[in-house]
Amino acid sequence: MIELRTPQEIEEMRPAGRFVAEVLTACREAAKPGVNLLELDALAHGMIKERGAESCYIDYHPSFGAMPFGKVICTSVNDAVLHGLPHDYVLAEGDLLSLDFAAAVDGWVADSAVSVVVGSPADAERAARDAKLIRTTEEALAAGIAAATVGHKVGDISAAIAEVARAAGYEINTDFGGHGVGRTMHGDPHVPNDGRAGRGFPLRPGLVIAVEPWFLEATDEIYTDPDGWTLRSADGSRGAHSEHTIAITEDGPIVLTARD
Ligand code: MG
Q: What is the domain count for the chain?
C-alpha cells in the first residue's frame, strides 16, 4: 500500500532525516585507516541512544536475512556493496567503504547511504576508478532526485538513474533498489535503479521514498557472504552506494537526509 504524507507529516519527518545525516557524517569522518568497523557501529549506536532514536536495523530480519541484523549501520567494504554486516575488520588506506544507515526519530524513519575512499590510497589508478564509481552513484542519485517531480512516474526516476550508470559504463542490478519510507523502513513503491520513463506509479505530492543507486565496477552479479547478510560482487570488483530519503511536493523534491 502506498501512503501519502501531509505537509505537516513531512515536517515531522525532518528530524529523522537530520539525525540520519548527522550519524552518516560522523561515521564518514571517523572512517580512517586503523579504525575497526565495529567502532563505527558503536559510534552510530551511541548517537542513537543519545538522541533517543530507534535503530531500524538491529532487529531487522527479512526473508533474505539469515538472522536479525544485530548492528545499527551497514558497513560494506570493497567488493561488499550492500547490507555489509559490521565485523572485526580494521580499515586500511584505500578501502572503499559504503555506509548505509536508517533510524526512526519520533516514529518517522529516514534512510541514507554514502560511499568514501578511506585515507590516502597509494594506488592512484585504483583511487581514480573508485572515485569515478562513487561519483557515478552520486550523479545517478542527483539525476533520480531531479526526476522526482509531480507529474512524473517512478519509472522516470529509474530511467534517470540508469542513464547515468550506463553512460559511465556500469551495469545495473535491480535486485535491490529504492522504496517507500514512513513509519517503517521499507514500503511501497519499489523504486528500481533501472526502468522505463513514463511508466509505473505516479509521483504524487506527499510520497516519501528512498532513492538509492548502487553500482559495481565490472559486473551486475552479487552473492551473499557466509555472514548471511553482506552482499558482495561475484567477480571481486568494487561497489559504491548513494542514498537519500526524499519527499515529493508540489514545489519539487525535499531531500530529508541532506548532509551539510
Ligand atoms: Mg539505506
A: 1
